[in-house]
Amino acid sequence: MSLMENGSINGIHERGNENKDLTNSYTVTRVDRDAVTRVDVEVCVEESVNIILNGARVASLTITPSNLKEFVYGYLICEGLIRSIDRIESVEINWPDIFVKVPEFDKDDPGLWMEIRSSGCVGVRSSWMSLEGPVKSDISLSKDMIFHSIELINDLAVLWKTTGGTHCTIIFDKMGSLISYAEDMGRHNTIDKAVGKALLDGRDLSGCFMVCTGRMPAGMVAKAYRAGIPVIISNTAPFTTGIELARKLNMTLICFARPPRMQIYSVPERIKDIGTIRENVP
Length: 282
Prior knowledge:
The chain is of the alpha/beta class.
C-alpha cells in the first residue's frame, strides 16, 4: 500500500495542508567565556492539534507542525484505537483540528478519558496494563548494526541540528535499511509519525527495529508493541514501567546505546554477537 499523489489511499480522501513554519528566528545574547555577542538563532515552533475521531475529541497534543497526516495514522495505531489503517475512512486537516472517520467507533466508549502525559500532552487513556500476548519475532541484530543506526540520528535529525529542540525516531528493517524517520518536539509524536509513514508505505513492521532519542517509559514501549515492532533502541534512559512492560511482552529494550556501549534491559538473545554474559560485573 502506498500513498497516491492525489492524496487518496484505498479510496480514502484526505484534505488539508500544513504549510506551517517549523522554526522561528530570534536574536539572543550569547555568552561564551568572556565573549558576549548578539546572534540570530532558530527555535522550534510549538503548536497544538486536536484529534477528532467520529466527532469526539480524543486527544489534544503539542506537536511540531509537520507530517500531520502520517502522525494521525500512526497515533491511532500506536494508541490502540484501531488495529489497521484500513479502518480509516477519511482524514481532514482543518488546523488545528484533525478530523478522522472510522466505522463502528463508539464516542461514548468508557475506555476513553483525558489524561496528562509526561510529554505534556493530553490524550486518550493509554492502558498498557492490559497488553498481553508476547511478541513473536525471529529478528536478530548485530552490535555494529545497532551502533550504526544510532549514529544515523545525527545525519537525519536536521531540525535538531538547527534548533537542539527535537526528538527523532527511525525505523529500520532487519537488514539495517532505512524504512522511515520523523522529528518532533515530542518523543511520543516521533514514534507516531515514523510508524504512520511506514504503514502508509505498506510496510510490515514485525521484522523491524526502532531507534529513538527519547526516554523509555511504558507508554513509549506500548506504542512500539501496538505497531508490531519487537526491538526498541534509545540513546538515553528507560523507566521502570518501560522495562517491566518490555519484559512482559518479550520485547528487546536497549537504552544508553552510545558506541561502543549499550545496556540491554530485556531479551538480549536477539543481539547475536554480544558473547558470553557474565554475572555480577559492575
